[in-house]
Amino acid sequence: MQLHDLKPAAGAHRKARRIGRGTGSGRGKTSGRGQKGQNARSEGFRLGFGFKNPFKRIYSVVNVSKLSRFPAGSTVDAASLAEAGLVRAGLDVKVLGTGSLDRKLTVVAHAFSSSAREAIEARGGTVTVIGEPRKIGPRRLAAKTAKRAPKADEPEPVASPPSGEVAPKGRVGRPEQSEAQESTPDQAEE
Asked: How many domains does the chain have?
């Protein structure tokens, strides 16, 4: 037997469908994809219609339950997590609170969920956040500080009448007139 004698079993190999080879082939022009629409596009979706956040942070996440493999009292950082195969090297690390922790650890990461922070500190461990704190611009900083400080020069708000009383209604579109001025035309001529 030679190499050229080898053939696949009957029905094991199907011939590839040749699309886009003219209208006579039956799969020409739109190549079996129909007209326009999402599935007619090359990637299967239309590009340029979504918002892409340029400030999005991508984390490699690890749950608290996975930290139990480290010895008690040790320091767990991004390098040790990558070495253990729990996270991808080079990405920021975020610790999430799923599962339980049964030992005291010092965990150093770029971000922590509130439940993860509570779980680590409940066992006597410590949490250290790597990196700069999130910066805010001067306008937002001014708005934040203005909300915190009470305004002293602002006058007291005018008290509304008690709930049982109704405030007097004035005439709409006409200035207030005294009773002496409100006279009928007959009285004014006399």
From this structure: 1
